[in-house]
Amino acid sequence: MRVELTIISMLAVADGLNDCFWRGDVELEDGDPSFQAEQVFRLFNRVSDADVKRLAKIVYELPSLSVGDLIVFSGHAFRIETSGFKQLDLQEQLLSQFFPEGASASPEVNDKD
Length: 113
Hints:
- The protein is an alpha+beta fold and 113 residues long.
- The protein has one domain (2-98).
- It contains 4 helices and 5 strands.
- The protein has helices at 10-14, 33-43, 49-57, 92-98; strands at 2-8, 21-27, 70-73, 76-80, 85-87.
- It has a 5-stranded antiparallel beta sheet with strand order 2-1-3-4-5.
- The radius of gyration is 13 Å and the shape is globular.
- The two termini are 24 Å apart.
- 19% of the residues are buried.
């Protein structure tokens, strides 16, 4: 399924970079949001030369995803933790202001195994 994804890099924020977020469409497998967050994590990390080329093709110039980064897609917001993800409880108003697709998030916490 194709989703609009927003990534906010906390490393870029800390470094004072003007461009600290990326937004684009990506293809994710169907599944629960925590499974899809795992897919996003893998897609946006540079492990191999193929990853570097794939990310360059979509003009992703932020660092690989790491602890503290935020990912938002399909009405769900996650923060990358040292082990897994924390699904964030963001108010509808905040999400709709920054992510106009009308997103809403639940307060559940989903950790990867």
